[in-house]
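Researcher: Quick one. two chains, 233 residues in total.
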Amino acid sequence: AQTVTQSQPEMSVQEAETVTLSCTYDTSESDYYLFWYKQPPSRQMILVIRQEAYKQQNATENRFSVNFQKAAKSFSLKISDSQLGDAAMYFCAYRSFPTFQGAQKLVFGQGTRLTINP
Amino acid sequence: DAGVTQSPTHLIKTRGQHVTLRCSPISGHKSVSWYQQVLGQGPQFIFQYYEKEERGRGNFPDRFSARQFPNYSSELNVNALLLGDSALYLCASSLEGLSYTDTQYFGPGTRLTVL
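Model:
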């Protein structure tokens, strides 16, 4: 079974600075997907960024980028120019390569609470 | 376009009771997944449905059941509630759940408290 580990329960950063959230995972599969989701106090889980394991190029979405190290099974999220609205719980998640009969479940880490200091 | 909607927003039940949670997916999405998020933890997969058929089930007891309707909305039922069932229940919808580009979009959740 796949597992996802986020070793930083809490992180804080000054507004406009850069912060990196860590995530490691364990799998025997070669093809899979990795995600970062954000959950603000409103509770709604929002997709931040997605990475396909077969792609060597790291995904980027505006101020959000990832450092995907497949051999090390590491998938960190970098937030540049942090804004007050970035404050939330951040979850790293794993999803297996799709099969016709298999469930497409997300396996989540424990989360990292990010605080932005003005 | 409306996102994933869930009802009710909050719910308080007592031990031994039964509860039904409801989810409406994004228009055009045919797959619905349910997750349980206990306070302070990441969500845990409960079920996935596609085209009214159960595609997968997580490690939850038989007290948990679900179904999907012809309009692709879904219900999650929990019988004989236990204190440990208190959690945020999240529903996620996706187009089909098969494509590598398919993404799960989450609703705001239902907060269930069991007393």
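Chain B is about 0% helix and 50% strand.
Researcher: Thanks, that's what I needed.
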